[in-house]
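idk why but the lab printer keeps eating my pages so im just putting this in chat instead. protein + iron/sulfur cluster:
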Amino acid sequence: MSTIQNISIFYFSGTGNSKKVALWFYEFAKERGILCEIVDISNANRSSLQKINPDSLIVIISPIHGFNFPKITLNFIRAFPKGKNRIVLMNTRGSVKIGNRITPGLTGVAFLLSSLILKRKGYKIIGQIPFDMPSNWISIHPVIRKKSAQFIFDKNYHRAKKHFEKIYAGKNDFASRKDTIQDVLISPVSFAYYLIGKFFLAKSYYASYKCTNCNLCIKQCPVKAIREVNKRPFWTFKCESCMKCMNNCPVDAIETPHGLWVIVIYLTSIVCTCLFYSLLPEFAQFWIVKFILFNIILIGYMWIFYRIQQFELKNRIIAKIISLTSLTHYKFWGRYKGSDN
Ligand SMILES: Cc1cc2nc3c(=O)[nH]c(=O)nc-3n(C[C@H](O)[C@H](O)[C@H](O)COP(=O)(O)O)c2cc1C
Ligand code: SF4
Ligand code: SF4
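predcted complex ->
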């Protein structure tokens, strides 16, 4: 008989992939007659963590953003009280279908960091399992077609079942170990994303002229990152780029300003070239100094231009021109939903 009597599943999900895997685990647990609760991290009451049964198996699942768990997930993990439960950490990563294969995503430091935090609190990590689900990052690529997404879901469903059975049988499951080398190699990028990239991306959403001011995006954002400025949604630096708003907008009004990206990157390059080759003293010409300066200027420009863009969006003609420079404006680009979220 399995030693698992109770399971508490905690998930965070922007576009539904992680929620889907969480629901699969819930279904498998129920089939085995295990008492199971499933909790959305973005609605979770932190005090409920104190009430977790000490014998419960805890499962945490969240997407990977920039080779790490998003801040909302890391904060939730940090809020765990001291305990001795067994924990299975899972993630969903971005993949695409090529022929009959699914490309692997990259976990980066997500498992390492969260395992360290939880172990220090006394928990026992018994599993680290990544799932390669359809990539939802439609700011940078068009949506994965329904048929390919379904193929990826089917493969993952069978994998999830196998992983569940392994854990149910009382075994540890560190499926992530085969990725250790690439996860360690990519770790510097995960810190750069956390400290810099994330803020650039936070300004990469805007509400186009199609916006009906229904405020759904403001209400649904899991981290309350959208507020109203000039009577339209405005994305603040708190945004986690989970893609929920962009994919749930009823009129597909939320877009990524690719035109603005081109202008900002071009201007940053010009300023940095002048700065690095004529003003910056030789002793400061290290790649790390240049990298940091480049990114500070980039985010500074993004902040300024984003404000101007927000103001200009009031003018319908200018708003239409901005939209024309956004790839996400065009129908073929599409929107992604892994499950209702
Ligand atoms: C801003 C952003 C960053 C991402 N970074 C990564 C990454 O570093 N590695 C990866 O494998 N997938 C990455 N992805 C893809 C998502 O992790 C993947 O599609 C995930 O399944 C989405 O889960 P969700 O639907 O539960 O939100 C990223 C997606 C976004 C939007
Ligand atoms: S959900 Fe879409 S239509 Fe509604 S306020 Fe947000 S951007 Fe506008
Ligand atoms: S603003 Fe949109 S993309 Fe950013 S965290 Fe909120 S729902 Fe996610």
